[in-house]
Amino acid sequence: MTDVIKVEGLTKLYGNFPVVNNISFSVNEGEVFGILGPNGAGKTTAMEILEGLRSPSSGKVSVLGMDVTSERHKIKHDIGIQLQASAYFEYLNLTEILKLFGSFYRHYVPPEQLLDRVGLLDRAKDTLGKLSGGQRQRFTIAATLVNSPKVVFLDEPTTGLDPQARHNLWEIIREIHNEGRTVILTTHYMEEAEMLCHRVAIMDIGRIVALDKPKNLVFRLDLPYEVKVMADSHLYADDLRSLDGVDDIRVDPNCAWYLGTADAALTMESVLSFSVSKGIRLTHLEVLQANLEDVFLAITGRHLRE
């Protein structure tokens, strides 16, 4: 596969503090690549260096074969950037803003076409102040595509949106990818990374602590499954701990037991055999797969939202 983005030993210092600390990765052509991590992990700083908006303290970064420091003016014609916080001209309507942005590039997409693809054609003559939060985010995506970029950078694209608006934006991002574009996005939403990204780099305190396909990261865990068990009579920890494949147990305030296991099928079979032999009626039996939140917790000892 062709590397559209290549990062080697990237470091960014503020004073003596490394906000981005010697990270290396590559992004394949046509890939949706995610950088997942909590606030303050260094995601946005790393993205802004990739976009040519900040200079690195050390290391090499290339986008589409061009150096982001020495060739940033050439790169801008082939990339689209959606910033975490964007400011637009307050008194221009959506069409006028897109026309203005398009004038900065050699080639640009007509505003009507951009607004239509994000479902805002009927708001073409409105100013941004008249849009909802979800509509504003969709407009930022339209502005990102004004030059028909080969690579699209999205920094926390769904932060602050309600679940419905978030899912609508995910669908637009999928459409952008399906057109053959490479997408790199930052997020602190575990579900967003799992749903959209082919590969994910997990960042913490300026470093990349894991990088792989989401499912591969999950299955590297010692216990990638939990079997959730509830019954109409009391269950005892020692009995559950002795079941086949169970390596960890916990119970919640609702008396639901969670049995950590590397072999969900084996543990399910053991739970069923145990319940029959003891005459226990199960009221709930479910297999839960671990997620990227569990991966982050296993690596760092902290939750993503801490």
From TrEMBL:
<dbReference type="GO" id="GO:0005886">
    <property type="term" value="C:plasma membrane"/>
</dbReference>
<dbReference type="InterPro" id="IPR050763">
    <property type="entry name" value="ABC_transporter_ATP-binding"/>
</dbReference>
<protein>
    <recommendedName>
        <fullName>ABC transporter domain-containing protein</fullName>
    </recommendedName>
</protein>
<feature type="domain" description="ABC transporter">
    <location>
        <begin position="5"/>
        <end position="230"/>
    </location>
</feature>
<dbReference type="InterPro" id="IPR017871">
    <property type="entry name" value="ABC_transporter-like_CS"/>
</dbReference>
<keyword id="KW-1278">Translocase</keyword>
<dbReference type="GO" id="GO:0005524">
    <property type="term" value="F:ATP binding"/>
</dbReference>
<dbReference type="InterPro" id="IPR003593">
    <property type="entry name" value="AAA+_ATPase"/>
</dbReference>
<keyword id="KW-0813">Transport</keyword>
<dbReference type="Pfam" id="PF00005">
    <property type="entry name" value="ABC_tran"/>
</dbReference>
<keyword id="KW-1003">Cell membrane</keyword>
<comment type="similarity">
    <text>Belongs to the ABC transporter superfamily.</text>
</comment>
<keyword id="KW-0067">ATP-binding</keyword>
<dbReference type="InterPro" id="IPR027417">
    <property type="entry name" value="P-loop_NTPase"/>
</dbReference>
<dbReference type="GO" id="GO:0016887">
    <property type="term" value="F:ATP hydrolysis activity"/>
</dbReference>
<keyword id="KW-0472">Membrane</keyword>
<keyword id="KW-0547">Nucleotide-binding</keyword>
<dbReference type="InterPro" id="IPR003439">
    <property type="entry name" value="ABC_transporter-like_ATP-bd"/>
</dbReference>
